[in-house]
Amino acid sequence: MLTKMDATRAWDPTGAMLQASRIFSDMDRAAVIFEMPADQRPELKPTVGVMVDIPKSKKGQSCKHSLNFLRSARRVWAETKYDGERAQIHVSVSTGGGKPNITIFSKSKRDSTLDRHDVHNVIREVLGFSGNSGTGRIKHSVILDAELVAFDGERVDEFWRIRRLVETTAYGVRGQRTARYKEHADNEEGVSQASMMSDDSDTRSLGLVFFDILSLESRSLIFTPYNDRRNILETIVRPKAGRAILAKRFPIDMTVEEPELELCKIFADHIADCEEGLILKAEKSYYNDYKLPWVKFKKDYIPGYGDTIDMVLVGAGWEKQRARELRVGPNIFTTFYFGAFKGDPKIAGKDQNPHIEVIFTASYGLNRKQLEDLNLLIRSSDSVQYPITKGQSLQNYTFNLYAGLQPPSVMLQEPLLVELFGAGFSKSPQCLYYELRWPRMAKVFRARERSWKEGLDLRTLHDIACAAVGRDRSDKEIDDSVKAMFGIPVSPGAKSASKRRAVVEEWEEKLRALDGKSKKSAKRAVSGSLASPPKRRSPDLVFNLDMFSVLSTRLLSPARLSSVYTPLRSFSSSRICLGRAIVYSDNGDPKTVLEALTLPKLAVPPPPSSVNIKFLLSPINPADINVIEGVYPSKPTKTDALTAQGKGSEGQPVFVGGNEGLAQVVAIGEGVKPEYLKEGDWVVVTKQQSGTWMAERNIPVVDVARVPNADKLTEAQAATLTVNPPTAYNMLHDFVQLQEGDWVIQNGANSAVGQAVIQIAAAKGLKTINLVRNRPNLDELKSSLEKLGATHVLTYDDLADKSVRDKIKGWTGGKDIRLGLNCVGGKETTLMARYLGKDAHLVSYGAMSKQPLSLPTSLFIFKNLTSHGFWQSQWYKTRSSEERDALMKTLVEYIIEKKLDTPEIEVVEIGKNESDDAATEKIRGVMTALSEGRYGKKVLLKLD
Q: How far apart are CA 30 and CA 7, in angstroms?
């Protein structure tokens, strides 16, 4: 096939036309530039307002096949492919300041700026522009690549939700399509479609996933390596939970013996998480690089591995676009109509024909010979013209044609059974039922082979689709409740840890089989920050490209930056040979899955650019428990590098618990400047889910931060420095410009974050209303919170009393409460939100009640309430090292000045002389006490 690259090279051997076509998505413009004299040609660089050509991806059909396109690369990044609509975003700032101008192009090269109006403010916000300000993080212009997606809360929702959200928020023609569609289904089949009857939801909104940057300040980045572009993107775009995120990506070291094994693991994880697939990008590749192209890897690209279903073919028609592709006339059927049975057709009454809901069409999948055979089969069978006229009827079934379909040409008297495959499931705007996405026909069964009545019914189709998209069927909760009443085991949820684990194992086995790999070879694959090293590597190093850096490169000796630091900056520590660790093999109840594990002694000296640390205290936070249960968004990585045999070794990987911890440096690796870190320094671990419930470990210097003024802090104060106090401080500073005397209201005031909020607010002259649960020792609790600086303390029961509103108005002098902090959720937060004033902000950072947050619409309409989510881990990811260092310094100053202290603590110590069994019993007892609320204190773990 003659490609655009072949044609342009043949036309212009100098390559000028080809380069122009890569910059401008317009061959006419590229041709005009080519025809200009060489000295008059404009500089080839992206221009704001002119679409840049979108790269054409190769299609990977297995892990090995996908990586074969990129074998010359030393490192490849597997980027999550989000199921959305492409958006190339052009932003320009006028010299006089003011609101930035935004132009958005879709994949079809259409100007979709008005269609995407709902995300304009999101774009301005993530670039640092507020209101009409012209003082964001760009001075002149930027061109960004993103995917428009639907968010449900902070989760990326199904693709089909986008359409309705666009139509209800767009300006112009597409925004006029807001009339309600008449749905044509009922619930007689037991197929509950409640959540599919409307795309509207208080929690849903359009958002963006940013994945590339093409130009910055009129400087082309097209020929800048991918990894450098990504680093620039991360400094320009600041994610906003539930509206804008950066695409997740995962590293693959191409210098190891079998890099496809790592891709196998990454892809299996994505399938288990119901993601669409991956885009593979070489670290040094240019944008639209023909030598190192992007490679799209989806399960439906693997022959025989797409979502496959058997459906009933009931009609056929001619579609102009498909006919043009096939170069056939209107006498050839190109498009075929498929449906599902309403009920089981095999048990329909003698005088009652089965009913079929016709819900989608398919035009692809068959080769030309197969298409000719199908046309011949239909024309030789009994059929009726559509629309069906008086005097004609279908003898074997009744049907309902989904209103959004173009009418067929004929309807078959005797339907056919067809096997189809596709890329997941979606929903059309006027239809309640899921349909196969990108359906392709694989096989047509003749009547003698299989009966058409073997096709799917609506209920089965719905259940298959729900499983594919990671959604529990609508009646599962009721079904589970009934089973529980009779002591019948319930089936695992669509996103349960056990089901996810089974899917991962199934797909890893499938992918290995495709590439001819054994399980044994797969175990040698690199699998994260604590994974075993591949055999051809040094046994002292384990590689992980997902590292979260807190320290600047200037902290390492310049002589070592190229030869040591550059590779190790992206790699984890050596094999972690320790004294003791608290581990678990699978997600579950901490009271039953946690266990203590004795490990070999720590090896010294540490690798270059790393340090040996001994943990002094490691907090047990509520989030740590959620991680163990498998319900927390930040997931740790299993390690099989702890021991030589048994648990923690090859074949029996484990998770190490803990996310926060204070440690002391016991040895310094080569390449670390002594003026930055020295033996005896206190450090806190800053990389997410590093595993801090252990005695000792090696760790890269970029994953720790030195505690300033450590000699003036207690171990407990320093150990609790990285999560709760920063959360409190940032929520008080990042959302509302509060002045001395302003008011803040919060629930969960007796939590560790709540107590930090009280103290930091008091230090800044802010006044607080603090909400807690009613309890027998309420007066004692009120007194302790007031000693910390709480202005007033109320219970949730107090809020239900109408007289409290007057009391609060008296306290505030009628001044609006402009900031509310929520860690509870449920009705308690609904009550609290009603006391917020005009233009207030509600910031949610937890949901201890495990109940959904429900807010009255009137608060948004009449009070202009803004609701945010906050996650301290995300804050660390999106802020510079200078900002993180400044935050820590501020908090330490508060502690030294006695303005901030830790909550009450209890240290749980596991001694060297305790057996693993005794230590396991102790840690499980701690988890039992925490689950029953018997501590009432901050629990810190100390492993000797």
A: 12
Give CA–CA dist 195/432, Å, rounded.
9
Tokens standing for 437? 């996405």
Q: Cα torsion for 491, 494, 498, 502, to the nearest 10°?
A: 110
> What is the widest separation between alpha-carbon atoms in the chain?
96
Polymer length of the chain: 944
Bridge partners (DSSP) listed for residue 244:
208, 240
Give me 454's structure tokens.
């073997």
| Beta carbons within 8 Å of 249's beta carbon, 6+ residues apart | 77, 78, 79, 80, 230
DSSP 561: I
Among candidate residues 471, 435, 461, 482, the one with its CA nearest the CA of residue 191: 461
Going along the chain from its start, the domains and CATH numbers come out as 4-40 (no CATH), 58-301 (3.30.470.30), 307-384+391-469 (2.40.50.140), 553-719+923-943 (3.90.180.10), 724-896 (3.40.50.720)
Contact 701, 858 (CB under 8 A): no
- How many Å apart are CA 268 and CA 502, to the nearest integer? 10
Give residues with Cβ within 8 angstroms of 774, minimum separation 6: 795, 796, 797
Distance CA 886, CA 870 (A): 19
Q: What is the dihedral of CA 618, 846, 638, 509, to 10 degrees?
A: 170
Beta bridge partners of 528: none
Positive or negative torsion for Cα 601, 623, 883, 662:
negative
- What residues act catalytically? 632
Model confidence at 572: pLDDT above 60:
no
Exposed, middle or buried: residue 463 (CB in 10 Å: 0-12, 13-18, 19+)?
middle
Tokens read off for 584: 């678990």
- CA atoms of 515 and 262, how far apart (whole Å): 13
* 262-268-271 Cα angle (round to 5): 145
Please report which helix (H) or strand (E) contains residue 260, including its range: helix 260-272
Helix (H) or strand (E) segment spanning residue 180 = none
Q: Radius of gyration (Cα) for the chain, nearest Å?
A: 31
Neighbours of 405 (CB within 10 A): 18
Tokens coding 13: 């051997």
Pairing type for strands 682-685 and 662-668 reads: antiparallel
Whose tokens are 């006419």? That residue is: 28
SS3 readout for 642-703: CCCCCCCCCCCCEEECCCCCEEEEEEECCCECCCCCCCCCEEEECCCCCCCCECEEEEEHHH
Phi, psi (degrees; rounded to nearest 5) at 488: -90, 130
Which residue reads 């043009």 in tokens?
Answer: 324
| Spatial CA neighbour of 287 closest among 78, 144, 90 | 144
The predicted-structure confidence for 178-225, as pLDDT tens digits, reads as follows 444 444 444 444 454 444 544 455 678 899 999 999 999 999 999 899
Reported as a pLDDT band with limits 50, 70 and 90, residue 328 is confident
Angle, CA 557 vertex, CA 556 and CA 558 arms, to 5°:
110
Instruction: Look at residue 858 and give its three-state secondary structure.
Output: helix
Q: Are strands 355-362 and 398-401 parallel, antiparallel or unpaired?
A: parallel
Better pLDDT: 327 or 530? 327
Contacts of 116 (CB under 8 A, 6+ apart): 87, 104, 148, 166, 170, 206
pLDDT tens for each residue of 806-855 = 999 999 999 999 999 999 888 889 999 999 999 999 999 987 777 888 89
Count Cβ atoms below 10 Å from residue 398 Cβ, excluding itself. 12
Question: Of 2-6, 149-153, 615-619, 766-770, which one has max mean pLDDT?
Answer: 766-770
What is the DSSP pairing of strand 938-943 with strand 905-910? Answer: parallel
Unique residue bearing structure tokens 């949610």: 844
Cis peptide, bond prior to residue 55, ω within 30 of zero:
no
